[in-house]
Amino acid sequence: MRLIEELTENAGQVQQQVLMEILTRNTDTEYLRGFLHGIRDVHHFKKTVPVVDYEQIKPYIDRIANGEPSNIISSQPVTELLTSSGTSGGQPKIMPTTAEELDRKTFFYNLLIPVMNQYVEGLDQGKAMYLLFVKPEMSTPSGLTARPVLTSYYKSNHFRHRPLNKFNIYTSPDDTILCQDSKQSMHCQLLCGLVQRPEVLRVGAIFASALLRAIKFLEDHWKELCMNIRTGEVSEWITDDRCRAAVLKVLSKPDSELAGLIEMECSKDSWEGIIKTLWPRTKYIDVIVTGSMAQYIPLLEFYGGGLPLVSTMYGSSECYFGINLKPLSSPSGVSYTLLPNMAYFEFLPVDHDCSTLGHEDDQVAQAQALSNGSLDSLQTQVVDLVDVKLGHCYELIVTTYTGLYRYRVGDILMVTGFHNAAPQFQFMQRRNVVLSIDTDKTSEEDLLKAVTQATLLLKPHGYILTEYTSYADTSSLPGHYVLFWELKAKGRKVIDREVMENCCMAVEERLDSVYRRCRRRDNSIGPLEIRVVQCGAFDELMDFCVASGSSVNQYKTPRCIKTKAAIQVLEGMVVGRFFSREAPFWEPLRLIGNAQV
Ligand code: AMP
């Protein structure tokens, strides 16, 4: 806690030191040399190095994936590539990382427990039931591993050989977390969690969607899990040897009493408060419920039966950003304090409604500025960490130790206060993302492309799509995308079910690979639904929006609606509901660099 105080009291100096250190190490990289020409100076950096999007650094990362040396962007060797849930050209973005970054992540994780201890007593008196998972990894043409950031961390020695102290004992043996088969991993982790029920003090996963997936799994498989507990045997389909052995150690003997108790609770009609019932000593639920995960709060509150929902940290594949110093604050009041030693942070002011100031225009302006050598567009607008203003919104820009320089993360944050000199931020939204159920991030543009493609199927049947909008329906698990479509028919026609179902599938086929993976492999997104509405429904929506404050002149149909009331307007005019009949195509083979791997 003293360290947090020191870092936040000296946020400005720490940030300058971080930038100097990054520059000292990396001025001679090909990327920075092109702008700095060997001059290691903060002002020069700010004047000459452009604020960039992924597209601008992608060629450098691809070159590393294809075997060129790391010093294109980083003086330290790039040890692996992290596949982000953000996509570029329909494929996951890949971020460079270095061995040293694992130390930084470990440092970051180690700060979370002391903060929590200040608010919740006795966390050393039991265990954490954290459901953590790894995902498959790939290898790039140069032999670098590419995998998600958490997979990288859980497989690292930093995690596997973590010094065990009273605060980081998990109910899931590492071998169950590291099991590649997500179904076996889930079954085994839940089994271990149930068996160690009396010891569990906190329940969690990284994101709310993952915890809800676990609850759904429990709903579907509790009888089998109870059978395992009753017999002291693990189901035969658990074939991962290490996983099996690890679970058998936990499940040391048959326990029909525990099995009976769990069966009794799980067979009740309502699962309200099930987490508290099954793990009665639980003090809080540790899951991120900010940003797109906020849509899951009602469901988690239902299952949690009043347990506090705690979002402890904010981070990404690019780097870990900040921690929540008031973990028991209500989900809507969560703010993250960015740790000034993690990276060099800058902030691009955005409109108060949190739309970036003319993002597309910025890009054009920047491209022009780059070509005529004057970099005066985005660079001049960005401000330092300690210069952000209370109540203002910004897009986060990072310069990392791992080879990203003035990189637009794409997250929009609002300043809600300060801890010492360090600002605290509420996560507002991801730039350009309109729909998200799990790790998928669908932009308005992605949606438009997918819908446009699907409407080609309507044409031969004499329909035209006149308006559409969407929302992420998370009222049941797994959540799914809902599109409201208003159709115009040439002549009087009955809506053809098969055509509409084909449209649902066509939309899904065109959404990006993260969406398709969640749908096909992870089952974390349900079949996409199109709800056809009566003619005039979108006029009603417009009337509603105008009555709620939108300007008539500037009104544009929102491509995603978020409020219950707006959804209700269209919902009342639905004339047909259609679902995708099968999950879209997805294959793990992806293009990294220039080669199929
Ligand atoms: P990825 O690169 O796949 O690891 O995703 C990182 C992104 O997830 C961040 O840039 C945010 O958009 C989102 N994210 C991570 N942590 C949080 C959080 N605590 N609250 C809201 N969004 C988050």
Automatic annotation (TrEMBL):
Keyword Ligase: yes
InterPro entries: GH3, GH3_C, GH3_M
Source organism superkingdom: Eukaryota
Alphabetic keyword roster: Ligase
Domain GH3 C-terminal: 445-564
GO molecular function terms noted in the UniProt entry: acid-amino acid ligase activity
Signal peptide annotation: none
Pfam family for this entry, one: GH3_C
Domain spans labelled GH3 middle: 336-430
GO CC annotation, single: cytoplasm
Similarity comment: family membership: Belongs to the IAA-amido conjugating enzyme family.
Protein name (record): Indole-3-acetic acid-amido synthetase GH3.17
Organism: Dioscorea zingiberensis
Lineage of origin: Eukaryota, Viridiplantae, Streptophyta, Embryophyta, Tracheophyta
